[in-house]
């Protein structure tokens, strides 16, 4: 009985550590994206996304499929640093959905000389080739 309790405690500890490490990795990706955006570097910002035709971005204009199409839309809608402004994320929740998936809900805010903008987002992260990437982004 004591061995079973010890094994259970060890497994729970390993699971909790993996959860914390993965969650911190995802939070670090978002911090890096925030810094890249604020540096005016959309190409670096896009490194947080899955570089695949299956990437899905849902915004005010509808659904965009594909990493390249998403990058093109960002560059079209944010052609310069004045339009990009300074980004700030408020993370509301980070939840593990399974071994391969995390959900992130938060708020975004752009401080800009051309007028501030803000909204909410839901991100679906997936572990692809041992890397956490955004596979779906719904921002409004």
At the fold tier of CATH, the topology name is Nuclear Transport Factor 2, Chain: A
- For the record, the count of structural domains works out to 1
Report the biggest beta sheet as strand number plus sense, adding barrel if it closes. Answer: 6 strands, mixed
Strand content: 35-45%
Rg (CA only):
18 Å
Helix content: 40-55%
Shape descriptor reads globular
Mean pLDDT: 91
What is the string of SSEs from the N terminus onward?
Answer: HHEEHHEEEE
Query: How many distinct beta strands?
Result: 6
Give the strand order of the largest sheet, numbering strands 1, 2, ... along the chain.
Answer: 2-1-6-5-4-3
Structural class: alpha+beta
The number of helical segments is 4
The CATH architecture is: Roll
CATH class value: Alpha Beta
Distance between the termini: 53 Å
* Low-confidence region ranges: 8-16
Keywords: Signal
Domain DUF4440: 26-134
Protein name: YybH family protein
Signal peptide: 1-18
Features:
140 residues, Nuclear Transport Factor 2, Chain: A, YybH family protein, alpha+beta
């Amino acid at each position: 009985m004591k061995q079973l309790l010890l094994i259970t405690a060890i497994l729970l500890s390993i699971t909790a550590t993996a959860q914390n490490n993965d969650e911190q990795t995802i939070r670090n990706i978002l911090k890096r994206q925030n810094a890249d955006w604020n540096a005016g570097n959309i190409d670096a910002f896009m490194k947080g996304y899955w570089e695949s035709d299956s990437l899905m971005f849902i915004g005010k204009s509808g659904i965009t499929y594909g990493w390249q199409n998403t990058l093109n839309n960002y560059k079209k809608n944010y052609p310069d640093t004045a339009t990009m402004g300074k980004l700030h994320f408020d993370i509301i929740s980070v939840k593990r959905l399974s071994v391969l998936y995390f959900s992130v809900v938060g708020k975004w805010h752009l401080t800009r000389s051309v007028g501030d903008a803000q909204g909410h987002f839901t991100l679906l992260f997936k572990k692809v080739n041992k890397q956490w990437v955004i596979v779906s982004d719904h921002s409004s």
